[in-house]
């Protein structure tokens, strides 16, 4: 009782101290003259967003007191490395042509600046957690002596405040303060900056809206609406085709089955009723793929739900990546349960091996891709390379959270096992499949099946790529959610249609085929990577190229498992329905 009273007293004292703090970077409240945290983050080529380097990898003016901000787990995953910036932007203190430093740039430093200016390097800073960017210099073409390289030497900061809060910061380079770095010699440079404070009536709670508004322009919203409308009409057309199939074909087959005489033979999809529920080959691998797809479906829905709820705000450093890591780790219980449960339905015996296969089917390729790409980033000295400590944290997260949840899900799936619901009895000897034309093969049908779902997301795909592999801000999670639901619906409908055509040709090996039909859209998405790289971006270099195609290979592999699972379950429901409507011996 006495210890509880002491703890309560200490808590009250601490709350009182914190309530008296008027100048705090955490509460974002300041008084006139208070220092406001300004951190320099990274530099890098504008056209290679993934290729970022520490700010002081370039010979900028160093601060008087060097301080490296301890990054959160999300900031490290995001590639942020915040360090003290030399500029002094005290709250409501104006400065005019303040000297930052004077430097004699060596020939090597001049050459280094010329190189980064030629590659359109830009820098990023955070002032009171508000992001800002600026280019380092420019190239002046048209000179009689060829191109000339100039570095910007003066920054002008324009800061808006409301009461004791900072609302907005804008900064620009002064074109009248430039230094020519064309010649390969020692050059003296004087770096300056100015600060101007202005009062505004904008509330503190709305200070990030400007970043949201830049992503929701009327012209872009019109394009999003057109894309959703187009997708919706495709869904209606597909539903209409399936309704016509049911009314004109399936109902006729159902009625003929009731009137069928004993001496008449069945034909079409009804003749393979004794083989259609025969378990697929490599069922352990198949069940593991379905389990991973179910987990990824849950991950995508969870992330989109958080986005719609407003959890992810523009330039919240690493919040989305933290959500992805923890959501994937927690949902391992779903993959373990669904895989083992389905594995027992298919009369599998070695459920432990199947559980381990489920855990490594997606995690294994991700780990190998990460090792290669992180090694590339480390060789380049990029901030995109994760340090050893962060890698250890991720490993411990997998070892003590993801893997135990996978085992727990597998155990629950084993305990709650059930029998596979098949309306028709499977014969002992499989029926021979008749010879099929070339267009009924696996690859042609995958090409046809993936084209329509891809056309639905094609427009939205550009904005997603421009956000992930560019500088555009994506905040339309509601639109993204609608597109995802339409994609799932179209994938399911297309898979049902192709499964019926396969069964009508008396081909009963539909299990893997339905999975491949659904997942084939991911192949088109990966092909779009090449189109985006060569036609819609100016990316170059080994690191950026390997990051784009390496991580997109992982994403498309996950999309393949997700949509393949959707296609299989949609086909399974359809097959169960039509065969439960006929008489089976």
TrEMBL record:
InterPro entries reported in the protein's UniProt record: EMP70
Predominant cellular place of this UniProt entry's protein: membrane
GO cellular component, one term: Golgi membrane
Keyword ATP-binding: no
Membrane topology note: Multi-pass membrane protein
Secretion signal span: 1-23
Keywords, comma-separated and alphabetical: Endosome, Golgi apparatus, Membrane, Signal, Transmembrane, Transmembrane helix
Pfam families documented for this protein: EMP70
Transmembrane regions: 228-247, 285-312, 318-343, 355-380, 386-412, 446-465, 477-503, 515-534, 546-579
Any single GO BP term: protein localization to membrane
Subcellular location per the Swiss-Prot or TrEMBL entry: Endosome membrane; Golgi apparatus membrane
Domain of life per record: Eukaryota
Record family assignment: Belongs to the nonaspanin (TM9SF) (TC 9.A.2) family.
Record's protein name: Transmembrane 9 superfamily member
Organism: Coffea canephora (Robusta coffee)
